[in-house]
UniProtKB/TrEMBL annotation, chain A:
Gene3D superfamilies: Ribonuclease Inhibitor. The gene is LRRC49. It comes from the Eukaryota. SMART domains: LRR_SD22, LRR_TYP. This is Leucine-rich repeat-containing protein 49. It is found in: Cytoplasm, Cytoskeleton, Microtubule organizing center, Centrosome, Centriolar satellite. Its main location: cytoplasm. It comes from Cavia porcellus (Guinea pig). Residues 374-383 have a biased composition (Polar residues). InterPro entries: Cilia_flagella_integrity (IPR050576), Leu-rich_rpt (IPR001611), Leu-rich_rpt_4 (IPR025875), Leu-rich_rpt_typical-subtyp (IPR003591), LRR_dom_sf (IPR032675).
UniProtKB/TrEMBL annotation, chain B:
This is Centriolar satellite-associated tubulin polyglutamylase complex regulator 1. It comes from Cavia porcellus (Guinea pig). Residues 277-288 have a biased composition (Basic residues). It is found in: Cytoplasm, Cytoskeleton, Microtubule organizing center, Centrosome, Centriolar satellite. Residues 277-317 are annotated as: Disordered. The keyword Cytoplasm applies. Its main location: cytoplasm. CDD domains: DD_C11orf49. It comes from the Eukaryota. Belongs to the CSTPP1 family. One of its GO terms (cellular component) is centriolar satellite. The lineage of its organism: Eukaryota, Metazoa, Chordata, Craniata, Vertebrata. Residues 298-309 have a biased composition (Basic and acidic residues).
């Protein structure tokens, strides 16, 4: 059909009669009364059968009764059209051959001034025999079977080319049609836009219902105002911003799913009307405001005017989205940074552990006598050659140093959880914590930090984070049961999680019971995620109760006091004394006071001192013991001297006694002379 | 007590043999450490307490390893303390690894060396699969001889190695270090090389050793008894038999016989009391958590202490 624009005001639609050649000429300039219609010749023989065959050898000359004569031509293939001279003069610039069952373009003789040619609704397969119509402006080949654009190279004046509903696979051979104004290629099989860049006067391009999958190569179409791409398979659009005049763009029923694929539309300043309905993008929640936000020049979207309200909403929503995106970007950056830091800390930790292992192995090797026998140490195997170990060791320490340049610790507060990675993170407890943040924290997680270092920080933890109820340890080298003793100094623990990774203590059969026993005053709810039952507590008490008893009541007084320290001394002594005084009474008071004390004092003596401190203590002890030894040696010397003297006396005494007695007897033998002697002694003394 | 031999010994020797000086020195050291506190209740009382604890065997609790190792009495006391404290673990039937036993030891003595525990474990496990689980009684008896007779065992190890390599057993053997590593047994499986050493030769060397050295040795009669029964023996075989021999246990006097190892009525009673008290301690607290207004004391009276359900193996006598 001829597009409406080109239909005359008083035009009559072509009749749908299909018998015989029906010529309708619709003059647009002549007045009504001069409209001439050629009569129908209704008793035409049955042409349709023969006409429908694409038989180029057909001879139409056998028809009769036509005012238009299709005369046999010298060439056997094409019918020749001839106007009567009458008609020629009246309607010389239009020729309509609609629904003529044509399978070929007839040769049109003597019509060189023809301006409008209509071949709609035929069966033409090739555009031919119109090269001579060099004044042709309007060519309508809608609804034919044309497979290729050809035969138009002489039609330099052509302005409207209608090739809709054909079988064209490729846009080509339009080089000379530089005056083309309207190009209609809808309903074909075109897969690619090409060979149209020279059509700088083209105003309307219709490529609807084709097989286009993308849109590009639209440069040069400086006049293009309307571009119809409905019902294709378009996934992305390019080059539209190079169309300076484009006002209407129809992309309905394609395959566009994101605005990025049509991003060039945002750059087009001329676009005012666009349709996206039937695309996946139109189903998205962000569709409308994204389009409105990116194409502020639009007036109509999907054939509906855009109101101010809509625009405002769109910008608001778009801003929110932008912010959200920025937030999530920031979040992911932070997360990445966190991950990298944790990796770094983990590497650092690993190296440290290996260095420590090597060091202890080195010590053991030094103490062993024969160096060629490999000694079996628990866990790690060492090479039998000390030189190798040394080399590895130095390599490791240098790697350790190089790592410390980057971030070696991470502190993270996430709502109610404080996560510390790396021993440097412990310093964060020194910082000033806002009461609110500190109060919210209920879980503290330690990773890649030596437990001994954590122990030193526990008092600070107690003060700064009073609500911390759940402690988590991972890769903290918890290897001995007595390390749990250190946790007793905290205010309260409800949950304890000791990750098997990096904490060998979890491999022990009794570790949970020991924890429950030692920290019984906390009444813990969960250990490693499992609830603590009454049975567990009883079992713990059963297993280690005697230890507590021995550790408290059997320790000599002085030892007890020295372990417990000043603060507890008085309480403990009070408890022990009262216990001793009233053995028979049910221990109500003791229970109460025990609760007051806050800890089962009978296990208060089970403490943990970190290795460093303990070694220091041992050094101290050595000094003192040396002194004691010297002191005792002096005492012993004295004692042995005295003993010797004593023994000597023992030996000599009988002899001495006999002599004493003998002397006395000899003296007192003569009473008189003895009396005289005594008196003399007395007078001498005066 | 007042035997003539005793009086015949010179002073220093006498004192040294009975380790009197060690205790005196330690007493003075304790005095030094806690002088402010002790001065409050009197030095005489302190000495009384101290020597009482030495007699009872509680003086070694939580002390440093060098002190615990110093005298045979200390070692025996330590063994006894270990038994008393952790008998319940054995009674419960748990099998533990060497490392875990070492942890338990460290609960009583923070710097107890790992080597001793390892050596004890080797005796139990016959130097094989060191990560194996061991029962409480096995470990305890092996640990007993290892700890009490450490120097003796080191010398025996040296002797054994020499005998294995065919050296003259009658040369004076001095162990090079007190914590000497046992060399690995020579590869077995060579055709015609019998395992271990000849028992009689071994006994001769041991006899020499016991005569020569001052440190405590197991009674020779027992050793003779063990070695008479076999033709050849390996080092760990010998030690294993030694540890399981009841005579050794009686000679040391620290631990009860194997049959009675899990029995300690006095302690069991005490334990019951503790368990009950802990239940009381726990439940009122939980109740208190739910009802914050109630007071603690009257609640205790209301709740009669219910007996904990006794497991089948619990037999207080």
């Amino acid at each position: 059909m001829i597009p409406g624009k080109y239909r005359s005001v008083s035009g009559r639609a072509a009749n749908n009669v299909n018998c015989g050649l029906h010529l309708v000429i619709q003059p647009s300039s002549l007045p009504e009364k001069n409209k001439v219609e050629f009569k129908l010749n209704r008793d035409t023989p049955s042409f349709p059968g023969r006409l429908l065959q694409h038989d180029l050898e057909r001879n139409y000359s056998s028809r009769q009764g036509d005012h238009i004569n299709l005369v046999n031509s010298s060439m056997p293939s094409f019918p020749i059209l001839q106007h009567s001279s009458e008609e020629k003069s009246l309607y010389s610039d239009r020729l309509t051959l609609e629904r003529q069952k044509l399978t070929v373009c007839p040769i049109i003789d003597g019509e060189e001034h023809l301006r409008l040619l209509n071949f709609q609704h035929n069966f033409i397969t090739r555009i031919q025999n119109i090269s001579n119509l060099q004044r042709l402006i309007f060519l309508d080949l809608y609804d034919n079977q044309i497979e290729e654009i050809s035969g138009l190279s002489t039609l330099r004046s052509l302005r409207v080319l209608l090739l809709g509903k054909n079988r064209i696979k490729k846009i080509s051979n339009l080089e000379n049609l530089i005056n083309l104004d309207v190009l209609d290629l809808h309903g074909n099989q075109i897969t690619k836009i090409e060979n149209v860049n020279h059509l700088c006067d083209l105003r309307v391009l219709n490529l609807a219902r084709n097989l286009l999958s993308h849109v590009d190569n639209l440069t040069g179409l400086d006049s293009l105002t309307e571009l119809n791409l409905r019902h294709n398979q378009i996934a992305f659009v390019r080059d539209v911003d190079h169309l300076p005049s484009l006002q209407r763009l129809f992309l309905s029923f394609n395959n566009i799913s994101s605005f990025d694929s049509v991003s060039c539309l945002a750059d087009s300043t001329s676009l005012s009307d666009i349709t996206f309905d039937g695309n996946p993008i139109a189903q998205e929640s962000w569709y409308k405001h994204t389009v409105l936000q990116n194409m502020t020049q639009l007036r109509q979207l999907d054939m509906r005017r855009i109101t101010e309200e809509e625009r405002r909403m769109a910008s608001v929503v778009a801003k929110k989205e932008e912010e959200k995106k920025r937030e999530s970007q920031k979040q992911s950056l932070l997360k990445e940074k966190k991950r990298l830091t944790i990796n770094n800390v983990a590497r650092h930790w690993d190296l440290q552990q290996r260095v420590a292992n090597n060091a202890t192995n080195q010590d053991r090797k030094d103490s062993a006598s024969p160096p060629q026998d490999p000694c079996q140490t628990e866990g790690s195997t060492i090479s039998p050659f000390p030189e190798d170990t040394g080399a590895v060791d130095s390599g490791l320490t240098s790697a350790l140093q190089s790592l410390s340049v980057i971030d070696t610790h991470l502190v993270e507060v996430d709502g109610d959880t404080l996560s510390l990675y790396g021993s440097g993170a412990l310093e964060s407890l020194d910082r000033n914590w806002s009461v609110q943040t500190a109060g919210m924290i209920t879980t503290v997680s330690f990773t890649f930090i030596e437990f001994d270092e954590i122990v030193q920080v526990l008092p600070k933890l107690k003060i700064k984070l009073p609500n911390s109820l759940h402690l988590k340890f991972k890769e903290t080298n918890l290897a001995m049961l007595q390390q749990f003793n250190a946790l007793a100094q905290l205010r309260r623990i409800d949950q304890l999680t000791v990750d098997p990774q990096g904490n060998p203590v979890v491999n022990f059969t009794l570790w949970k019971y020991y924890v429950l026993f030692r920290l019984s005053h906390f009444s813990m709810q969960k250990i490693n995620g499992t609830e603590v039952t009454q049975n567990d507590m009883i079992m713990a008490e059963r297993l280690f109760g005697i230890l507590a008893h021995v550790a408290s009541s059997e320790l000599p007084q002085y030892h007890l006091i020295s372990i417990l320290g000043d603060a507890r001394k008085k309480q403990f002594r009070y408890l022990l004394e009262t216990k001793g005084k009233k053995p028979g009474i049910v221990n109500e008071e003791n229970n109460d006071s025990k609760r007051l004390v806050g800890e089962n004092t009978n296990r208060a003596t089970l403490n943990y001192t970190t290795r460093e401190f303990y070694n220091e203590k041992l050094e101290d002890i050595k000094e003192k013991k040396k002194f004691c030894k010297m002191y005792i040696e002096d005492l012993v010397k004295e004692a042995t001297e005295i003993n010797m003297k004593n023994e000597a006396l023992q030996k000599l005494w009988p002899q001495m006694f006999i002599e004493l007695v003998r002397d006395a007897v000899i003296e007192t033998r003569n009473k008189n002379s003895y009396m005289k002697l005594c008196l003399q002694q007395i007078t001498d003394q005066k | 007590m007042l035997s003539p031999e005793r009086l015949a010994q010179p002073d220093y020797e006498y004192l040294a043999q009975r380790h009197v000086l060690t205790y005196m020195e330690d007493a003075v050291y304790q005095l030094l450490e806690n002088r402010e506190d002790i001065s409050q209740y009197g030095i005489a009382r302190f000495f009384m307490d101290y020597f009482n604890s030495v007699c009872q065997g509680t003086h070694i609790l939580f002390r440093e390893f060098s002190f615990i190792q110093a005298t045979p009495h200390n070692r025996a006391s330590f063994l006894r303390a270990f038994w008393r404290c952790f008998r319940t673990v054995g009674k419960n039937g748990d099998l533990l690894t060497m490392r875990e036993y070492h942890c338990l030891l460290q609960l009583l003595c923070p710097d107890f060396p790992l080597e001793l525990t390892q050596k004890a474990a080797r005796i139990v496990l016959m130097d094989d699969a060191m990560d194996c689980l061991m029962s409480f009684s096995d470990f305890l008896f092996a640990f007993q001889i290892q700890f009490y007779y450490s120097e003796f065992l080191d010398s025996v190890a040296a002797i054994y190695q020499d005998l294995l390599s065919g050296k003259n057993p009658n040369t004076v053997i001095v162990p090079t270090s007190s914590s000497g590593q046992y060399r690995q047994r020579p590869a077995l499986g060579e055709a015609g090389v019998p395992e271990g050493v000849e028992a009689s030769l071994f006994y001769q060397c041991l006899e020499n050793l016991c005569d020569r050295h001052k440190y405590s040795c197991p009674p020779l009669a027992l050793v003779k008894e063990i070695l008479n029964g076999v033709q050849r023996l390996t080092f760990y075989g010998f030690l294993g038999t030694l540890s399981k021999h009841p005579g050794i246990n009686q000679a040391l006097g620290a631990l009860p016989d194997k049959a009675d190892l899990m029995q300690d009525p006095a302690m069991d009673e005490e334990l019951e009391r503790l368990v009950v008290r802990s239940r009381l301690h726990r439940t009122p607290r939980q109740h208190r958590a739910k009802e914050p207004g109630a007071t603690g004391a009257p609640r205790d009276k209301l709740e009669a202490p219910e007996k904990a359900p006794k497991p089948s193996w619990w037999q207080p006598e």
